[in-house]
Design a protein that fits this description.
This protein has 725 residues and is α/β, with parallel strands linked by helices. Among the domains are: 450-661, Leucine-rich repeat, LRR (right-handed beta-alpha superhelix) (Alpha-Beta Horseshoe); 681-724. 11% of the residues lie in helices and 23% in strands. It has a 24-stranded parallel sheet, with no helix packed on it. Helix 6 (668-692) crosses helix 7. The protein is extended. 41% of the residues are buried. Its main location: membrane. Belongs to the RLP family. It is a single-pass type I membrane protein.
């Protein structure tokens, strides 16, 4: 097409051409419309510098790079889209593009002042979208135009960086419809309430994580066109205005989470008939949940506040997809009418004071519920047998008062997390748990389970964490269990299982409590990706530690402590190259500590205390140089540092290399030679001192004579028979 010198319009879109533009492209000087977006073109853009008649230029979503100064001569441009490339340079090069109406620069490395001062002279500019660039503070820069000549309809600069003060240039704008200045540090400036007051056409206002403070104030008149308001993750305080429902009646999205708002939830929220997403989480709100809420709500999140009271029955007819009431002081029973919410996918009610049984009506949620968290309440009764949700992926019922056997979740084949820890559950761990092929996190600790560890657990090839500690389990450890934990398969399942469930603006990230390095931590989703382990501690397990370790190398935590295990410590444990916590204490293990364990370079907690181990402790090198006496105490036949008991010279050493243990702890020939040499040097030193100093010589001979006479009379009086005296 380079021969088409009079070509005015050229569009090559979504063709995925992988090439640089030919040099002859610069000869298409008649071009007015050029769209080569969504391809794989690369190289710089110097071929455009002569296309001065261009009015429309879209080269977005390619692999172009270079300085944007090449475009400063295209003064006829009305539309310019450079998004999703690798351009750099200062936006001041566009000062000459006085015909520009729409400027899109997102996802590059272009330097843009938050004030937009270099563009103040572009009187026709209406839209600027430049997300994910290099936003900076340019308050000290001087420009020929002090106030903007444009009237913007849409501005989006969300990214990062220090923006200085909130751009006062926007105080001159009255036609704004969309504003997104999220993730820019405006150094604690007061919230720009004037944005709402000045722009009656405003539809979307996003000021997320912008370091804003102060009170949120409503405009003097209602803004019926505003559909989205997100001021989350700032430092806003005071009360949420009571008239918010009257002044902003058309909102679809209202997110004021992660601030310091106090007081109650305004009753006028119920007047927002279009509201679908409401997020007041992580504030200091008090009082109860309003009895009147919008019936069209899909997501309702008031977690991490100070709300109290019961769940209002007026919520019965809502069409919620996600409900999060966790971390408040709500009380009462779990309402039976929740079973009528046929579309409910996420239900989080943890860390409250709910009591009573889990309602039977929950069985109606069989085809919708994916995520259930009722942990840390006072829920009692047994696990309902109808809990066999076909879509359920994550269940958290820990820290309650549930009792009886596990009779639920038989058909929940998509289950990824099952946390029933810290209850009063009894019976055996069911064999059918091996059918939950997607299970990655199994926590049954701190209950009253008995019987053996089912061998069917070995069929869970996605298993990442298993914690059955503090129960009454007996029998041996299934050898195949050591080969079940696999980082690769479990991580893939974790990422594809929908663990991070999102419904609208709502995202789920419930922590799991797991003990590592003798300390219990709560691990959230991002950290769980890198954690794997087995905790069988505090049971009645017997037999030996399995020696078969094939696909177990990436495990991080292994805890078999407080059981009745016997036999040696398997040398194969040295193959756990990534392990950080190894606890075998309080068992009946015997034999030596394998010297191969010295190769565990990430080990930061190690304990074999209170066993029947013998021999010497591992050489104090690498990570083992950090372990103190408490790691080995309680083994009567164990010696060596850091224990106070020293080993004999000829004693065996489990921590020395084989060629060293054959000769003992040290080279004996060297020892004898050094001993004789030291003895000779000592005698020579004494002789020289006595020769030089007469006084010391006289005292020396006096003491030698006195000692000799004392020995003589001692022997004469106490040892020799009387007939020899």
């Amino acid at each position: 097409f380079c021969e088409l010198r009079k070509l005015q319009t050229l569009a090559i879109i979504n063709r995925y051409w992988d090439a640089s533009l030919p040099e002859c492209f610069s000869e298409l000087t008649s071009l007015k419309y050029l769209d080569i977006s969504s391809n794989n073109f690369f190289g710089n853009i110097y071929v455009f510098k002569n296309l001065t008649l261009l009015e429309y230029l879209d080269i977005s979503s390619n692999s172009f790079f270079g300085d944007i100064s090449m475009l400063k001569n295209l003064t006829s441009l009305e539309y310019l889209n450079l998004g999703y490339n690798n351009f750099f340079g200062d936006i001041s090069y566009f000062m000459s593009l006085t015909s520009l109406r729409e400027l899109r620069l997102s996802n590059n490395k272009i330097e843009i002042p938050s004030s937009l001062a270099p563009l103040f002279n572009l009187s026709k500019l209406q839209i600027i979208h430049a997300d994910n660039n290099m936003i900076y503070n340019a308050e000290t820069e001087m420009h020929s135009v002090d106030t903007p000549t444009f009237q913007l309809r849409s501005i989006s600069l969300s990214c990062c960086g220090d923006g200085g003060s909130f751009p006062q240039s926007l105080n001159h704008q009255h036609d704004l419809e969309h504003v997104d200045l999220s993730n820019i540090n405006f150094k604690g400036d007061q919230f720009p309430n004037w944005l709402l007051e000045n722009n009656k056409k405003l539809e979307l206002l996003y000021l997320v994580n912008s370091s804003l403070s102060g009170h949120f104030q409503l405009p003097s008149t209602s803004r019926r066109g505003l559909s989205g308001l997100d001021v989350s993750s700032n430092s806003l305080d005071g009360n949420i205005p009571n008239e918010i429902g009257a002044k902003l009646p058309s909102l679809w999205v209202l997110n004021m989470s992660n601030n310091f708002f106090g007081g109650g939830i305004p009753i006028s929220i119920g007047d927002m008939i279009s509201l679908q997403i409401l997020d007041f989480s992580n504030n200091k709100l008090s009082g109860g949940i309003p009895r009147h809420l919008p019936m069209g709500l899909y997501t309702f999140d008031v977690s991490n506040n100070q709300l109290f009271g019961d769940i209002p029955s007026s919520m019965e007819n809502m069409s919620l997809l996600a409900l999060d009431l966790s971390n408040n002081t709500l009380f009462g029973g779990i309402p039976r009418w929740m079973g009528k919410m046929s579309g409910l996918e996420v239900l989080l009610m943890a860390n409250n004071h709910f009591e009573g049984p889990i309602p039977v009506e929950f069985c109606k949620l069989n085809y919708s519920l994916k995520f259930l968290d009722l942990s840390a309440n006072n829920i009692s009764g047994s696990l309902p047998s109808f809990f066999s949700f076909s879509r359920l992926t994550h269940v958290y019922l820990s820290r309650n008062k549930l009792k009886g056997p596990i009779t639920s979740f038989i058909n929940s084949i998509d289950l990824v997390t099952l946390d029933l820890s810290n209850n009063h559950l009894t019976g055996n761990i069911p064999n059918w748990i091996g059918n939950l092929s997607s299970l990655s996190y199994l926590l049954l600790n701190n209950n009253y389970f008995e019987g053996g560890i089912p061998v069917q657990l070995c069929d869970l090839h996605c298993l990442r964490l298993i914690d059955v500690s503090n129960n009454n389990l007996s029998g041996t450890i299934p050898p195949c269990l050591m080969n079940t934990i696999s980082n690769d398969s479990s991580r893939a399942n974790y990422e594809n299982s929908g663990y991070d469930i999102s419904v609208g603006y709502f995202s789920v990230d419930v922590p799991i409590k797991f003990t590592t390095k003798s300390i219990s931590y709560f691990y959230k989703a991002t950290v769980l990706t890198y954690l794997s382990g087995i905790d069988l501690s505090c049971n009645k397990l017997t037999g030996e530690i399995p020696h078969q370790i094939q696909h177990f190398q990436d495990i991080i935590v292994l805890n078999f402590s407080h059981n009745s295990l016997i036999g040696p410590i398997p040398p194969a444990l040295a193959d756990l190259s990534q392990i950080e916590s190894l606890d075998l204490s309080h068992n009946n293990l015997s034999g030596n500590i394998p010297s191969h364990l010295l190769g565990l370079h990430f080990l930061s907690f190690f304990s074999v205390a209170y066993n029947n181990l013998s021999g010497t402790t591992p050489q104090r090198s690498g990570q083992f140089a950090t372990f103190e006496e408490s790691s080995y105490v309680g083994n009567p036949f164990l010696c060596g540092e850091p224990l106070p008991k020293n080993c004999s010279i000829d004693g065996p050493s489990s921590s020395m290399p084989k060629n060293a243990t054959d000769k003992g702890f040290i080279d004996m020939e060297f020892f004898y030679a050094s001993f004789v040499g030291s003895y000779i040097v000592m005698i020579l030193c004494i002789a020289i001192v006595l020769y030089i100093n007469p006084y010391w010589r006289q005292a020396w001979f006096y003491h030698v004579e006195a000692a000799t006479m004392s020995c003589y009379y001692f022997v004469l009086d106490h040892i020799l028979p009387k007939r020899f005296r």
